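Aim 2, interim progress: modelling of the adenosine-5'-triphosphate-bound target.
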Amino acid sequence: MTTDRLLRIAVPNKGALAEPAAAMLKAAGYRQRTDAKDLTLIDSDHGVEFYYLRPRDIAVYIGRGHLDLGITGRDMLLDSRAEATEIMELGFAGSRFLFAAPGGSSMTIADIEGKRVATSYPDLLAGYFEDKGINAELVKLDGAVESAIRLGVADVVADVVDTGTTLKRAGLELFGDPICTSEAVLIQRNNAELPATAEGLKTRLRSVLVAQNFFMMDYNVDTEHLETTLALAPGVEGPTVSTLAKSGWSAVRVLVPRKGAHLLMDRLYEAGARGILLTELAACRL
Ligand SMILES: Nc1ncnc2c1ncn2[C@@H]1O[C@H](COP(=O)(O)OP(=O)(O)OP(=O)(O)O)[C@@H](O)[C@H]1O
Ligand SMILES: O=P(O)(O)OC[C@H]1O[C@H](OP(=O)(O)OP(=O)(O)O)[C@H](O)[C@@H]1O
Ligand SMILES: [Mg+2]
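Predicted structure of the complex, ligand included:
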């Protein structure tokens, strides 16, 4: 344990980020609140204090230097214009931020000129319009933006889209390229000096991502086919090759990306590997 002050971390208290953020911190070995009414929680074993805050406010606290690290959405960080930087992608709450208009209207970005655009991300959108030289009227709403056109308050909406179900239900169609592609990110204040415990937290979060995205693979292979199989699955730091009791055979252990793991098993089998096993990683430190 370090003698540094407690590391202060902002965790989303509600919405799409809250549950997966707490789950990721738990998977990294930290304590998390068990009562949704708790505003803070101290994990003294790790020298960390968690603050449960609205996701939209997190970049503000970090940018002003009142908290050390925070979990928020990239789109929210950009919209806040806070003096904070994204330091790690966390792999959940993936979304795109897109324009939509009534179904069948076949609008283009150029058609936005002079229109009323409803959004709950006004500064993100203002930045986009500035870059593109578009003049449009921003209508700031808190949520349920998809209803703004039907209710007559806007001609176009710009909103978070995941599956597209909400837009479809509102009879809207997407147009243009995404204004932003978002996911949950770990943020810190620009050029902040953090307690030493921050490095430990980052290492643990990175390790959770590896554990989530990789499998451990074991297989046996004879000497003739060893090199071919090693080339197919080179691993992260290189495979471990040990001698098998059966003469002329090796046992190989290697980390493989979860995505495509079954295809890789087929390829390794064709290349001579046998007894191929895939195992979940409970945790790791790389
Ligand atoms: N349906 C979704 N699927 C994936 N990510 C989403 C979804 N909705 C929102 N997000 C992402 O999660 C983050 C927080 O959005 P969320 O909707 O939880 O906040 P909010 O709108 O301020 O809160 P609330 O909806 O509770 O008022 C944003 O980065 C956003 O892109
Ligand atoms: O593409 P989908 O999978 O349908 O998800 C996108 C919807 O999810 C979010 O809504 P949320 O529930 O956060 O409500 P809000 O609009 O009030 O923020 C977002 O604002 C969209 O409305
Ligand atoms: Mg929302």
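The first helix runs from residue 18 to 27. Residues 42 and 50 are 6 Å apart (CA to CA).
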